[in-house]
């Protein structure tokens, strides 16, 4: 059963926030959805947005400026939280990059995380089914995008589910988490010490073993403070080149890691998805 907890009119459509008891994460989950004006009279394609470390569903909806473009393009935008939440959910309050706010879009296998931290199944199974049952979406017409940890999430969701998404895009994704300290910290905790098991959750590793990539657009900022230490776009590019997989990876001059960067290019990403889902 879903509960609507907020409804705000924006660009002729509605920005809504919903809560539900998640069978996958075993806690109350919150997500936001933007329904453009066209949703009042017709079914529409849907874009799933996965946010980064420290975010809730709120960051993208107040900072990215996506809703104006969704209203123009006739796209529904779904914005889940980045982790399970609540008093019963394990957390490391002194860490921003582990625990609540840092679900990393994997299915944890290790105690104490595995009961609730099933974000991959949540965003690829439970949430899409809920969205298709509850909102005027065209069944199966979906795309996925995200930022940083959420860019990694968008890439692995697309790579691990051939045919599920018409297109994937990402802003400053963590392209090779097994070699980044953010990825290593979360994968070690959630997935355990066997690094071979981590590779099933890493976009670059998945490309190397032949996972198919749908139409893909990636932007990184050249002034991103996390570029060298955490993101490794060159590894993803090299893996795609070795496999002959087309990838549009743009290095945007002077942009940082923030939502200012995302707001600058979100219109191009949404138009890219609208085109992919129209064909
Ligand atoms: N040093 C920061 C780190 C957190 C941060 O930069 N989070 C980014 C995503 S980074 C990768 O997933 C973010 O989106 N933050 C929220 C925002 O609204 O900008 C810290 O101290 O928190």
pLDDT < 50 stretches: none
Q: Could you state the order of secondary-structure elements as H and E? A: EEEEHHEHEHEHHHEHHEH
CATH-assigned fold name: Rossmann fold
CATH homologous superfamily (4th level) name: Alpha/Beta hydrolase fold, catalytic domain
Task: Give the amount of beta strand, in percent.
Answer: 15-25%
The percent range for helix content is 25-40%
Q: What oligomeric assembly is this protein in?
A: single chain
Which whole number gives the mean pLDDT?
Answer: 98
CATH architecture annotation: 3-Layer(aba) Sandwich
What does the overall shape look like?
Answer: globular
Counting H and I runs of at least 4 residues, what is the number of helices? 10
In angstroms, what separates the terminal alpha carbons?
A: 34 Å
Instruction: Kindly give the count of domains.
Output: 1
Largest sheet: 9 strands, mixed
Radius of gyration: 17 Å
Which CATH class is shown?
Alpha Beta
